C-alpha cells in the first residue's frame, strides 16, 4: 500500500532524513520507533504532505505522491494525527469531529460515520456537546484519532499517541488502534515508547539519525541482540 524509498528531508543544514525506506502493507499495523530527533515526525510529515522532501519516492496505492500537498494526500486516503492532541478547544466534540470530514460532501454519510465511530469511542458520544477543551488528555487523543478517521482514510498515521498518558489510558488507545484495523484501516504509528510499539505492531522499524537501523516482525525485534544499539544509534 505504502512504499517509501530513500526519503530525504532537510531543514537548512539539518538532515532530518538521510534516505529512509519503509513499506506498509494493506491491513498492517506498523510502528516506527526511535529516540528524540530520529526523524520520525519528519517521515510522517513527508508522507502526509506537510513536510517537503529533498529526495526519494513515496508510492501510495501505486502512485508517487511525493511533494503532493496535504489536501491531495487526504483525498487519496492518508490521514495524519500529529503529536500534541490539537483539538479546537472552544468547539464541541461533535463540531471537532465534523471538521475532520471537510473533504466529504454527504452530510448523511458523515453523520452515519460519526455514529458508527461512537461505538469505538463511547466517551466521545457521552460528551459530544461539551467543549473539547474540557476533555482529559486521553479523551482528547481519542477525539483527534476519531476526527482523522472522519476523512475516511485507508492509512491512518499516528505520531506519539501515548505521549504523556497514563499506562491504562495508553492501553485503551492501543485497543482502539486494533479496533480501527479491524475496520479495514491500515495503521502506521510513531512511538518513542518502543516497548509499547513492539507489543502492538505487526512489524517495527527502528529509526535513528534519519535512517532505518533495524526492521522486522515486532516479535523478533523484541529480543533482538542489536535492538538497543540500533535504537540508541550505536550500530
Ligand atoms: P521527536 O520525537 O522529538 O519529535 P522525531 O524523531 O520525530 O523526534 P523529527 O521531529 O523528525 O524527529 O526531527 C528530526 C531532526 O530535524 C531533529 O534534529 C529536529 O531538531 C530537526 N527538525 C525537525 N523539524 C524541524 C524544523 N521545522 N526546522 C528545523 N529543524 C527541524
Automatic annotation (TrEMBL):
ABC transporter domain span: 2-234
Pfam families on file: ABC_tran
InterPro entries: AAA+_ATPase, ABC_transporter-like_ATP-bd, ABC_transporter-like_CS, BCAA_Transport_ATP-bd_LivF, P-loop_NTPase
SUPFAM superfamilies: P-loop containing nucleoside triphosphate hydrolases
PANTHER family tied to this protein: HIGH-AFFINITY BRANCHED-CHAIN AMINO ACID TRANSPORT ATP-BINDING PROTEIN LIVF
GO molecular function, one term: branched-chain amino acid transmembrane transporter activity
GO biological process, one term: L-amino acid transport
Protein name stated in the entry: ABC transporter ATP-binding protein
Keywords: Amino-acid transport, ATP-binding, Nucleotide-binding, Transport
Family: Belongs to the ABC transporter superfamily.
Amino acid at each position: 500500500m505504502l512504499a517509501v524509498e530513500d526519503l530525504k528531508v532537510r531543514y537548512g543544514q539539518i538532515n532530518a532524513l538521510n534516505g529512509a525506506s519503509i513499506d506498509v502493507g494493506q491491513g498492517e499495523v506498523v510502528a516506527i520507533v526511535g529516540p528524540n530527533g530520529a526523524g520520525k515526525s519528519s517521515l510522517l510529515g513527508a508522507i502526509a504532505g506537510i513536510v517537503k522532501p529533498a529526495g526519494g519516492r513515496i508510492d501510495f496505492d501505486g502512485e508517487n505522491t511525493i511533494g503532493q500537498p496535504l489536501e491531495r494526500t487526504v483525498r487519496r486516503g492518508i490521514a495524519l494525527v500529529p503529536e500534541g492532541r490539537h483539538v479546537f478547544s472552544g468547539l464541541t466534540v461533535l463540531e471537532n469531529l465534523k471538521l475532520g470530514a471537510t473533504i466529504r460532501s454527504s452530510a448523511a454519510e458523515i453523520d452515519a460515520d460519526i455514529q458508527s465511530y461512537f461505538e469505538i469511542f463511547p466517551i466521545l458520544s457521552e460528551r459530544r456537546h461539551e467543549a473539547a477543551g474540557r476533555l482529559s488528555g486521553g479523551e482528547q487523543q481519542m477525539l483527534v484519532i476519531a476526527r482523522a478517521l472522519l476523512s475516511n482514510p485507508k492509512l491512518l498515521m499516528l505520531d506519539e499517541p501515548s505521549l504523556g498518558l497514563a499506562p491504562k489510558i495508553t492501553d485503551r488507545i492501543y485497543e482502539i488502534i486494533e479496533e480501527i484495523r479491524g475496520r479495514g484501516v491500515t495503521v502506521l504509528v510513531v512511538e518513542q515508547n518502543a516497548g509499547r510499539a513492539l507489543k502492538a505492531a505487526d512489524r517495527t522499524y527502528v529509526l535513528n539519525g534519519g535512517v532505518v537501523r533495524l526492521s522486522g516482525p515486532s516479535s523478533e525485534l523484541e529480543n533482538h541482540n542489536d535492538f538497543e544499539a540500533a535504537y540508541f544509534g550505536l550500530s
